[in-house]
DNA sequence: CGTGAAGTTGAGTATGCTCAACGGTGGTGG
DNA sequence: CCACCACCGTTGAGCATACTCAACTTCACG
């Protein structure tokens, strides 16, 4: 199992690796068990062993690019540590983030000729990389494992549908509430407190994910604080105070 | 190969089957070759034979429901004829259409416990239905076929990403232009004229797909006509007059 | 403790929505 | 076969949500 460390600097405004930030998400990153990358769909110990044979481990500094949109989609990744964003850009610079990935998520499935989006490290992060060609061979050998890949894809498709509803029909308030609850659920999945959130991404990232302006994110969060729905200790450190009310808002019931 | 005709009436405002409309899309519907359902990803004759063994043929009248959101996702469909819409509803009635399906498209992959959306016939249409359990068995037997299912899912994910960009960041003009070009491409795939479109869905469906109001669809189309980008013989009969300009608008370059 | 990036707040505005009236088309019944 | 009616689509006027532009504040890092 080789270890590759891709050293590409992505955007000018992005910081260069800083040792401090390498560990502040999933303290110590070295505990990158592939198991992490699997809880979503319930891969068995046996599946993991097979996958491990063809995987390489890769690390990325904040802002680094895992792969670019349209690049040949010859690798699939599973995130083991940190936060990754999937980014689509328009010629004039408008940016849409189609999703954030946390430990346990698969990355790079969406493709059609090339990748459907660029993938960038939000925090320092680590991932396993699987060459698609070897994955294909493996799948032919273990069709039961392949069926699990189908299940992962089905799950991801369902998530994309939710995002489409959010972007097509929800108000700014509903979008932000939905997002906070999403972060909460994902934190819970990783065994972290579900009502004390550490926001790993910037307001700009949140805005580009929710299809609004950064100012709208700020205003809405302030609004929620005013309604005692959340507490904001610091910008990146938010407490959920009334999850039920937030859920009502998220689904448009309030 | 059994033939099931599900006779569920979906919404009150939807018409009951009418013989005339059963045939006006893909004259004659009886020519429902599974091959139709396969050009996207290039299934081989052999794959089709295997799939045919476990499929049943189903027909739907305009407005009928193929399946409901949250229902157990135990069937996957391939559309052979007509137009199908994927619908998500919010409690207060807001509606988002996450996509339209044409002959050759697969349906029902997006699921997580249950289906991620309801599927409804826009026009009269026909489909093949594959029980997931039997599909699973088949896949274990023919892993090469299963890999093609993964490819279909990857393609669908890429499409969902495009829709996310559209809904998150594009203006109304850009959305409508993108949609017209999408219809054009899909028509071309089916061997139909690519600049003389037959719009099979209502303005309301278009609006709910593009995340705008129906009035905005009307206004934008009128605008495009005024700019000589399109011709509108009748509401459902649109000619593309300047595909290049439309493409520029669609990607935000104009 | 200074500096620059990130986040918040405010004021004014624009895009697209809502509400409403009008027009056309197709299907149905006389 | 024609006429009516209902529904779908179009157009218009006013308005609201969220954006843009700009100033100010806070925080992280050196």
What's the helix and strand layout?
The structure is a homodimer of 254-residue chains.
Chain A: E1 3-4, H1 45-54, E2 56-60, E3 65-67, E4 75-81, E5 84-89, E6 95-101, E7 106-107, E8 111-112, E9 114-115, E10 118-121, E11 125-131, H2 132-141, H3 143-169, H4 172-189, E12 196-198, H5 203-210, H6 214-226, E13 230-234, E14 237-240, H7 243-250
Parallel strand pairs in A: 1-2
Antiparallel strand pairs in A: 2-11, 3-10, 4-7, 4-11, 5-6, 5-10, 8-9, 12-14, 13-14
Helix pairs in contact in A: 2-3, 4-7, 5-6
The structure holds a DNA duplex (30 and 30 nucleotides).
In the predicted model, the low-confidence regions of chain A spanning at least 5 consecutive residues are 1-35
Which percent band covers the strand fraction of chain A? 15-25%
SSE order of chain A, one letter for each helix or strand: EHEEEEEEEEEEHHHEHHEEH
Interface with most residues: A-B, 49 and 49 residues
Mean pLDDT of chain A: 87
**What is the number of helices of chain A?**
7
Computed structural class of chain A: alpha+beta
Quaternary structure: homodimer
The radius of gyration of chain A is 18 Å
The helicity of chain A comes to 25-40%
Shape of chain A: globular
Strand order of the largest sheet of chain A: 1-2-11-4-7
How far apart are the termini of chain A? 51 Å
Report the sheet with the most strands of chain A, covering strand number, pairing sense and barrel closure: 5 strands, mixed
Number of DSSP strands of chain A?
14
């Amino acid at each position: 199992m080789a270890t590759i460390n891709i050293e590409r600097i992505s955007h000018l405004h992005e910081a260069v690796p800083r040792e401090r930030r390498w560990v502040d998400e999933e303290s110590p990153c070295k505990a990158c068990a592939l198991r992490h990358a699997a809880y979503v769909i319930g891969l068995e110990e046996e599946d993991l062993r097979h996958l491990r044979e063809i995987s390489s481990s890769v690390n990325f500094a904040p802002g680094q690019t895992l792969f670019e949109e349209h690049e040949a989609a010859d690798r699939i990744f599973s995130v083991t540590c940190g936060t990754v964003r999937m980014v689509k850009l328009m010629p004039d610079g408008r940016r849409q983030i189609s999703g954030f990935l946390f430990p346990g998520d698969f990355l790079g499935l969406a493709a059609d000729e090339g990748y459907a989006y660029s993938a960038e490290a939000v925090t320092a992060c680590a991932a396993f990389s699987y060459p698609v060609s070897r994955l294909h061979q493996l799948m032919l050998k273990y069709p039961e494992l392949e069926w699990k890949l189908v299940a992962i894809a089905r799950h991801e498709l369902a998530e994309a549908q939710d995002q489409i509803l959010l972007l097509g029909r929800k108000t700014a308030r509903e979008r932000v509430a939905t997002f906070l609850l999403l972060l909460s659920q994902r934190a819970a999945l990783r065994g972290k407190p579900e009502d004390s959130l550490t926001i790993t991404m910037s307001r700009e990232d949140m805005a580009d994910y929710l299809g609004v302006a950064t100012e709208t994110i700020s205003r809405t969060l302030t609004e929620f604080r005013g309604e005692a729905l959340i507490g904001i200790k610091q910008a990146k450190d938010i407490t959920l105070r009334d999850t039920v009310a937030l859920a009502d808002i998220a689904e448009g019931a309030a």
